[in-house]
Amino acid sequence: MPVSGKQQDEINALLNDKIKELFTSETFLNEVVKGVSSLILQDLDAELEQITKKVEVLEEENKDLRKMNANLNIAIDNMEQYSRRNCLKVFGLPETPQENTDEVLLDLFKNHMHLSISPSDIDRSHRTGRMDSIQTRSNSKVKCRPIIVKFTSYNAREKVFKNKKLLKSSGVIIRENLTQLRANVLKSAINKFNYKNVWTYDGKIFIKLKNKLYVVTSSEELDKIKE
């Protein structure tokens, strides 16, 4: 049976009243909000889960890259230190204009250390760095730049280094020519454990504590040592 215009108006009015009643009902509105919120939260949870997985993958990749970078830095440092194997650094020798550092060193080795080192044992030598006041073990201060010397053989270098104790109290100090990384580790080790308990040999840093000997080449290894 067809609906008349009047009946249609009555139906529309009734529907409008019901809709108004629903939208003024706190219970209905709460249910709508709850349903919409649930859908939004589900979408957010799904997106958050995807983002979390991506972050975990990136963190793992970053961890692997940091490890690779650390290993690469260690390998580079090892190679650089090995390239300095025949070198020593001499502190405390007075600096004069137009000096010949080879002759200065040969005089030190012969007349102060009584070693048989010939000119052919020295590949090259030169002053390095800026002229600073150097605090020596004898508490004297000498203004001069250190000399880096490269020997033609490890044996000649070793002969000098093993006899550096002959220069005790002379104001002259002989040290290994460490990489910047290892020089920083050595400085930290001396500050932490006192220079009497710290020394170097063949580019490695030795620390003696309570009759136990530690060997380190990096700050990470140094940090693991507890007094």
What does the secondary structure layout of this molecule look like, with pairings?
Layout: H1 5-23, H2 26-83, E1 87-91, H3 101-112, E2 122-127, E3 132-135, E4 141-144, E5 147-151, H4 154-162, E6 173-176, H5 180-193, E7 198-201, E8 204-209, E9 212-216, H6 219-223
Antiparallel strand pairs: 1-5, 1-6, 2-5, 3-4, 7-8, 8-9
Could you describe the 3D structure shown?
This protein has 227 residues and is α+β, with helices and mostly antiparallel strands. It folds into three domains: 84 residues; 92 residues, L1 transposable element, RRM domain (Alpha-Beta Plaits, 2-Layer Sandwich), CATH 3.30.70.1820; 49 residues, no CATH class. A hairpin with a 5-residue loop joins strand 3 and strand 4. The longest helix has 58 residues. The mean pLDDT is 85. Helices cover 52% and strands 19% of the residues. It is rod-shaped, with a radius of gyration of 39 Å. The strands form three sheets. Strands 2-5-1-6 form a four-stranded antiparallel sheet. It has a three-stranded antiparallel sheet with strand order 7-8-9.
Task: Name the features.
227 residues, Alpha-Beta Plaits, 3 domains, three-stranded antiparallel beta sheet
Tally of domains = 3
Overall pLDDT score: 85
| Biggest sheet layout | 4 strands, antiparallel
List unreliable stretches of 5+ residues. none
CATH class of the largest domain: Alpha Beta
> How widely separated are the two ends?
100 Å
Strand order of the largest sheet: 2-5-1-6
Radius of gyration, in angstroms, nearest whole number = 39 Å
CATH topology of the largest domain: Alpha-Beta Plaits
In N-to-C order, the SSE pattern is HHEHEEEEHEHEEEH
Number of helices: 6
What percentage of the residues does DSSP assign to strands (E)?
Answer: 15-25%
Helix content: 40-55%
Counting helices, strands and paired strands, the structural category is alpha+beta
